[in-house]
Amino acid sequence: MSELRVVAPVPGVVHAIGQVPDPVFAEQIVGPGIAIAPDHVARLDVVAPCDGVVGALHPHAFALEVDGGRSVLVHLGIDTVRLAGLGFTLHVRRGEAVRAGQRLVTFSPVDVAASGMSTVCPVVALQADPALVVLDAEPGSRVAAGDPLLTWR
C-alpha cells in the first residue's frame, strides 16, 4: 500500500488528538490522528484532506474512503451532531469522488462556539495501526487548509 498524505481540512492551530474533549477521539478509539482548532470566523470552508470517495456524510462530519480500504474521518467540532445540521452547508454527496483541497462543507466556528460546543476538528485515520501514522504538523503550530497534517504509511 502506498503512503497516504493527509492535509489540513481547515486553517487553525494544531492540537494533539489526546487533547480533544471527547474520549472517543482522545483515547483513539476510532483511530489515531490529530486535531485542529479552526480559525474563529463566521464562515469557513472545509476541504478534502486527501483524494477519495465520500463515504459517511453528515453536516458535522465526513469520511473519505481511499485506496487500500483506508478511510479518513473529519469531525467538525465536538457534539455538533446536536445542531442537527443547522449552520452547516454540504457541497458534496455521498459516493462522490473528491480531490484533496476540494471544498466539501462550509460551517461557522463562531456559531458552534456560541452554542457552547468545542470547535476543535479531529482528523482521524480510521482503525489505523498507530505505528503507521506519522504526524507532519506539530501540536501548537499553525496550519493553512491544504498544509501537510499526517502521513499514513
UniProtKB/TrEMBL annotation:
GO terms for biological process: phosphoenolpyruvate-dependent sugar phosphotransferase system. It comes from the Bacteria. Its main location: cytoplasm. The keyword Nucleotide-binding does not apply. Keywords: Kinase, Phosphotransferase system, Sugar transport, Transferase, Transport. One of its GO terms (cellular component) is cytoplasm. One of its GO terms (molecular function) is kinase activity. It is found in: Cytoplasm. Residues 22-127 form the PTS EIIA type-1 domain. Pfam families: PTS_EIIA_1. The keyword Transport applies. PROSITE patterns: PTS_EIIA_TYPE_1, PTS_EIIA_TYPE_1_HIS. PANTHER family: PTS SYSTEM GLUCOSE-SPECIFIC EIIA COMPONENT (PTHR45008:SF1). NCBIfam families: PTBA. This is PTS glucose transporter subunit IIA. It comes from Cellulomonas uda.
